[in-house]
Design brief:
This protein is mainly β. It has a 6-stranded mixed beta sheet with strand order 2-10-9-4-5-6, with no helix packed on it. It is built from no helices and 10 strands. The termini are far apart.
């Protein structure tokens, strides 16, 4: 059974940093493009960043130059380093496959105060 467990969220002041982790029990993890998503209150879930099996990364415009996605295939884990956080980054953050998404985890709450 596929399981995604996100962690690392918290409350931080604007300008601060957080590092999110996602432990994924996905068979053949290294072969999948993985992504981080977020959902703010009253808004639709949006993709924030993705990383291919080969390490190619893509970011939504609002987080470029501030967020960095990475992966450790030995640990079946994907990370999101978030710097220069803004109040508009406040959301629940989730990870999942980019294509053919599986069941969502519980997410991790990120709250950025102004």
């Amino acid at each position: 059974q596929v399981q995604l467990v996100e962690s690392g969220g918290g409350l931080v002041q604007a300008g601060g940093s957080l590092r999110l982790s996602c432990a994924a029990s996905i068979s053949a993890f290294s072969s999948y493009t993985m992504a981080w998503y977020r959902q703010a209150p009253g808004k639709q879930r949006e993709m924030v960043a993705r990383i291919s099996s080969g390490g190619t990364t893509n970011y939504t415009d609002s987080v470029k130059d501030r967020f960095t996605i990475s992966r450790d295939n030995r640990k079946n884990t994907v990370y999101l380093q978030m710097n220069s956080l803004k109040p508009e980054d406040t959301a629940v953050y989730y990870c999942n496959k980019f294509f053919a998404q599986t069941s969502w985890g519980q997410g991790t709450q990120v709250t950025v105060s102004s």
